[in-house]
Amino acid sequence: MKVLVTGATGQLGWDVVKELERRGMDYRGTGSKDLDITDREAVMEYIWDYQPDAVIHCAAYTAVDKAEDEPEKCRDVNVNGTTYIAEACKVVDAKMIYISTDYVFGDDGDQPHEVDDPVHPLNVYGQTKWEGEEAVRRILQKYFIVRISWVFGEHGNNFVKTMLRLGQTHKEISVVADQFGAPTYTADLAPLLCDMMTTEKYGTYHACNSGCCSWAEFAEEIFRQAHMDVKVKYITTEEYPTKAVRPKNSRLNKTCLQENNFLDLERWQDALDANVYRNVGSKGAIQMAFKVIKAEELSWNPFLQIGKGWFLVTAGTKEKCNGMTVSWGGFGVWWGKNAATVYIRQNRCTKEFIDAGDRFTIAAMPESCRKALGYMGSHSGYDGDKWQSAGLTPMEVEGTAAPEEAEVILICRKLLAAELTEETFLDPAMKARWYSGGDEGNFHTMYIAEIERVLVKE
Fold first, then answer.
1. pLDDT for position 274
2. Long-range interactions of 415-419: CB distance < 8 A, separation 24+
3. Domains identified in the chain and CATH numbers
4. Collapsed DSSP state (helix, strand, coil) of residue 322
5. Could you give the CA distance from residue 124 to residue 73 in angstroms, rounded to a whole number?
6. Which residues pair with 402 in a beta bridge?
7. Is 352 helix (H, G, I), strand (E, B) or coil?
8. pLDDT tens digits, residue range 318-354?
9. By the number of CB atoms within 10 A of the CB, which of 143, 163, 167, 224 ranks highest?
10. Catalytic: 234?
11. Contact 243, 124 (CB under 8 A)
12. Tell me: the pLDDT tens digits for 219-231?
């Protein structure tokens, strides 16, 4: 399947391209320098030459306030450009996904908008996106119109990045508290769009992360997750006048996703959690060393990594923690969750820290830390500060600790702890091999833990 992504350099298009790459699909991504979508002849020529099976149309004019001053420019991109894309899709018989917006609706009530509710755009941007929808419906039968709201992602500018930037220099920030909607994380939306285009479940959809909040509540959660001491002052829309009128009710009903067996997007708070980790460290300092990936994206061989590479398991806090190497364990799916297993002997200092908290980390270390790992594995935390002696530096992550030197960090939440006993061994040779002599009766405890987040050093 060949896929064309317009607006590939933008916030959503960037994540769509990443998702297509992850799936190994044949695609092309265009920005405004590659393809002027307001040039009908250029659009037709480009799409005819490429012959895509699907076009994910992310390109748009999105400067909401500026559009009030240059409505024709906004309309040229959002209406004419969309029309030309749709016409070209019809010629090559390609599916089209058109990204629309909650701004097609007005202030109507406090209930989530249904996909077939009457529209009432309050600004030029919303009006042009609605006209783009109508063009797609008029020209095509094989289309998906996907309305989204309050978009944020790793790439480009958005509300999350603005709050994080302002939080560095302000102790109090005024944010509108009477506009309600749901944030949409582009890294969550991109897989949904890629799933949609492989089906024939055409129509209009609403897609955003689950839950609802005001802009002020959104800001509070950003600062809470970033561990930034910033007070959010609740204000009304009238107290924060803007050139373009924004709807107070941007709630979107997403029943259409479930009815067509598409996966719903995760809670907006969880989506924000992943995004904040891409932008800030646990204490609010900008941290570019690690990026968040999904557990399914890990590419290592567990047999080599666990058996020969070793991991460093750490529990506690940055101020007081302990770590040790483990060469037993595994990764898989337990109770529907991506999870890891580790085994810790009863007499290890690290076990006390793991038992005392809800989370611990598993870190894959670079080869340059081999000597340090050897020290962490052969010395006890009861005897002194292993971190300083090994030359490693603990840092805080998600309320627990991990080594700054790590290449990959798995943040794990305990699900089960089971002590091995003499009766649990079916092969007596294993007990004799590992639990005799000085280790007589010093059995391991098996921990199964959900992998909540994967951090990879960039």
1. 76
2. 415/334, 415/335, 415/337, 415/339, 415/448, 415/449, 415/450, 416/334, 416/446, 416/447, 416/448, 417/355, 417/445, 417/446, 417/447, 418/445, 418/446, 418/448, 419/346, 419/443, 419/444, 419/445, 419/446
3. 2-288 (3.40.50.720), 293-457 (2.30.110.10)
4. strand
5. 11
6. 395
7. helix
8. 889 999 998 888 899 999 899 999 999 999 999 999 9
9. 163
10. no
11. no
12. 999 998 888 889 9
Left, alpha or beta for 437 (phi > 0: left; psi -120 to 50: alpha)?
Answer: left
Kindly name the residue from 27, 50, 125, 205 that is annotated as catalytic.
125
Residues in the chain, total: 458
Average of pLDDT values for 130-137?
Answer: 97
Name the DSSP class of 285. Answer: S
Quick: pLDDT tens for 230-252. 999 999 999 999 999 999 999 99
Euclidean distance between CA atoms 116 and 95, whole angstroms: 21
pTM over 0.70: no
CA dist., res. 436 & res. 428, Å (int): 11
Question: How many CA within 13 A on the CB side of residue 167?
Answer: 28
CA-nearest of 246, 255, 312 to 117 is: 255
Whether the per-residue pLDDT at 39 is higher than 80: the answer is: yes
